[in-house]
């Protein structure tokens, strides 16, 4: 089969996947307290439905959605609620959180893990299960999955794409899930296809994962509605816009949703979470993380309960080599730098990446030489050099005029820039400033009504 791809993009010189691609998933049970930030998804924060002193069990809902675009939170440990207070999160800010004193018994709710036949459920029942299970996109964005699967009357996708590209360097958790839990992945996809009877399912995998392609091709050989689509290995192949173009040839921009192109896009981990919730009555209480980099003593893939302290997790699997210069939550291209590992694992946590040297910090940026490499690399087909000039000058009007809000902050332009300009960082600041200005304008207009 032809290996599809998108226009532009880059090929990182070091993908770092050799550290953990052959490391089977290990299970971990935390010993310390569990911390559940009420904002660990896109949308309104969840609302706590427990109080200090309450006893909770594994799988019990402890916070309900705070609105339609929100997500429930369920406990991954049993014990007593010791506090509801601001706690440090991976973005370096404090957020209101439920803190549970882990009793170490991991006592489950009565129905946890019980089998359920999805064929007996209506679409509305499936959506309610997914909502109450707190399932969100586990590829990084954290968008509530029940919202993504809720369609307007008369609207339905013709293609459900499983994002199995895992194009971010160093990360291998989705790859290991495909090898070790392929039936769960396919069962989760079948649940979604049950909801959309006219849709086909496509599992899109980069060709640097031949074992996963072979295995899933074998398992789907007799299924007329599910196929495997090999993709050319290129970053950022896993971006929704890039993936939709590679699989279907259709294009969307930042003002459109995948459904505008007739698609629903789900991450591997998210699809398995759908299976767990619908077929095994288990909410999203665990995620698989890759602990990796040259600053990690024992690179590995770990299934870890949500709420676990990341410092405890790292110590349990060999710890760090001295003091790495850089710690990243996620991958090196789109992850967030961390200053403290004493932060909780959340639903979208994918990795702890430790690097002994921070190459980016050593860069000495120089003026743009107008080589055009950033333009050739940009998957959104923008002109990063001109956007950077506008952003650095604080000219938000010019930045918007250059379609700067279409930037997906993938980092391709920064990666290829021979002048070592920190373009992506400038774009993030500019986009935040534009969004803030838009909010102020809307508030002012609303006040005049």
DSSP strand tally: 17
**Rg over alpha carbons:** 22 Å
Q: Which structural class is indicated by helix and strand composition?
A: alpha/beta
Strand content: 15-25%
Q: What portion of residues is helical?
A: 25-40%
Strand order of the largest sheet: 1-14-13-17-15-16
Distance between the termini: 58 Å
Number of helices: 13
Shape: globular
Average pLDDT figure? 95
Could you name the ranges where pLDDT drops below 50 across 5 or more consecutive residues? none
Give the ordered list of helices and strands: EEEEEEEEHHEHHEHEHEHEEHEEEHHHHH
Mind summarizing the main beta sheet? Answer: 6 strands, mixed
What descriptive keywords fit this protein?
6-stranded mixed β-sheet, 449 residues, 17 strands, alpha/beta
What features would you describe in this structure?
- This protein is of the alpha/beta class and 449 residues long.
- The protein contains 13 helices and 17 strands.
- The protein has a 6-stranded mixed beta sheet. A 4-stranded antiparallel beta sheet has the order 2-8-7-4, with no helix packed on it.
- β5 and β6 form a beta hairpin.
- α4 packs across α7 and α10 crosses α13.
- The model has no long low-confidence stretch (mean pLDDT 95).
